[in-house]
Amino acid sequence: MASVIQVANRALTKLGAARIISLSDDNKQARAVASCFEDLRDDELRAHRWQFAMKRIELAALSAAPTFGYKHQYALPPDFLRIDMVDDRYPAAVMDNYIDAEYLEWTIEGNVVLTDIGAPLKLRYIAQVTEPNAWDSNFREALASRIAMEICEELTQSDSKKQAAMNDYRRAIQQAVRIGAIEKPSVMPPDNQWIISRL
Question: Where residue 182 falls among pLDDT bands split at 50, 70, 90?
Answer without folding.
Answer: confident
